[in-house]
Design goal:
It is a single chain. With 200 residues, the protein is an all-alpha fold. It has one domain. It is built from 11 helices and no strands. Helix 1 packs parallel to helix 5 and helix 9 packs antiparallel against helix 11.
């Protein structure tokens, strides 16, 4: 049951984002299909169910924020919510054109996912290819330039623990979803390396 609710919330949010500008583009559809096949590693039955969920959500009466709150309850932690937030950014940027309605959702939805509003700017700059900037690296780790080396290392280690595969598995979510945790770990590792290289 938990798995079913998870899929409903996830693919309904993706549908709402894809249609935020009034239409679902081929690039957005391809990205979401690729997600189902390779990232979450869903089998054919799950993909059929996801496709139906996606189609129904395009025209239902619920908002993306309704589904975000549902997803937050199932996910149960900040890390899982950050991962779905990154997916929504990926859909919004799939056609290389961030529509004003898509941008409005990306600005508003962090509060419904239980995320800090600062995540909007961090993720936006990441999708513009600027996430290697030192100031953004501090934001990713939740540190300040004035933080000591030991404080930066402590923040880094805490994030590594939060994104450990065992933590994701304990949520009872699809094993393929661990790939998103791995992607987040790459971002965290890059941020830590950027900071420590700058301090040498």
């Amino acid at each position: 049951m938990k798995r079913r609710i998870f899929f409903v919330a996830l693919f309904s949010m993706l549908a709402k984002m894809a249609k935020a500008d009034g239409k679902v583009t081929a690039q957005e559809a391809d990205l979401i299909n690729h997600l189902a096949r390779t990232q979450i590693e869903m089998d054919s039955e799950d993909r059929k169910a996801a496709a139906l969920i996606f189609k129904n959500a395009l025209d239902d009466d619920f908002t993306i924020y309704d589904y975000a709150k549902q997803y937050r309850q199932i996910a149960g932690n900040t890390q899982m919510c950050e991962m779905v937030y990154r997916l929504l950014f990926a859909v919004a940027y799939a056609d290389n054109d961030l529509h004003v309605e898509e941008d409005a959702i990306l600005r508003e939805i962090p509060s419904h996912l239980g995320l800090d509003s600062a995540q909007y700017q961090i993720f936006k700059e990441e999708f513009h290819g600027q996430h290697a900037d030192v100031s953004e690296s501090y934001k990713i780790l939740g540190c300040e330039p004035a933080s000591s080396d030991s404080e930066v290392k402590r923040a880094y280690r805490k994030l590594c623990m939060d994104y450990h595969p065992d933590k994701i598995a304990a949520k009872g979510l699809p094993e393929g979803f661990m790939k998103f945790a791995e992607q987040q770990m790459h971002l965290i590792n890059d941020a830590y390396k950027t900071i420590m290289d700058q301090r040498k």
